[in-house]
């Protein structure tokens, strides 16, 4: 199952590590540079929808809630400072994740803080790639939940985040617009560093879900 997951849905262009040469989109550069953490997170939840209980799904929601809570304020701060509608017109999904946390009585995970040095548009691009790109995987999971009738198999689950992620969004158009503005090798290296930092937050949050089991039981 592909979860996080621009990497699995789109082929990787032969771009070289962060090389901003002509014809290589920012999305492709970020996809290649983050392929390893993408795949690692995928493996954590590969059997989630086939499990006999909702334990893996609880960890998935707790991880995402912690990471969105850590990353979205940083991204919002960049958008407000730059007064850039490309950033500020996004629809964060933290409210939906909080709804799932409350409905399933899950304990929050304390995420590692995301620390970026003087973040600007390149950093925003890297963070958007990770957060908004993860909705592609959530959309796929949502379809599996419906196909496997997991609401019946796992009574008491809440899928507000998955349902919100399944709605239309402008991820592809937003990344294309950012690709036209984040073009130099230096800027793209900064975007890569921000995306990798965001994935590190996800990895730390996942580790937190295994150290602190959810309050709800299935």
TrEMBL record:
Gene3D superfamilies from the UniProt entry: Heme oxygenase-like
Domain of life assignment: Bacteria
Name by which UniProt lists this protein: Biliverdin-producing heme oxygenase
Organism, scientific name: Aurantimonas aggregata
């Amino acid at each position: 199952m592909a979860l996080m997951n621009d990497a699995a849905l789109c082929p990787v262009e032969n771009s070289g590590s962060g090389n901003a040469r002509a014809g290589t989109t920012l999305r492709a550069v970020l996809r290649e540079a983050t392929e390893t953490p993408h795949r690692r997170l995928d493996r954590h939840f590969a059997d989630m929808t086939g499990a006999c209980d909702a334990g893996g799904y609880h960890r998935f929601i707790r991880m995402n809630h912690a990471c969105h809570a850590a990353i979205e304020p940083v991204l919002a701060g960049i958008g407000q400072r730059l007064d850039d509608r490309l950033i500020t017109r996004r629809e964060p999904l933290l409210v939906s994740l909080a709804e799932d946390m409350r409905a399933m009585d899950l304990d929050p995970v304390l995420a590692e803080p995301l620390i970026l040095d003087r973040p600007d548009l390149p950093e925003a691009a890297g963070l958007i790639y990770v957060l908004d790109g993860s909705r592609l995987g959530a959309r796929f999971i949502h379809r599996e939940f419906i196909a496997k009738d997991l609401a019946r198999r796992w009574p008491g689950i809440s899928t507000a985040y998955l349902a919100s992620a399944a709605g239309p969004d402008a991820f592809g158009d937003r990344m294309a617009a950012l690709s036209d503005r984040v073009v130099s090798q230096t800027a793209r290296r900064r975007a890569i560093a921000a995306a990798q930092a965001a994935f590190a937050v996800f990895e730390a949050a996942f580790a937190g879900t295994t150290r602190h089991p959810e309050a709800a039981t299935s």
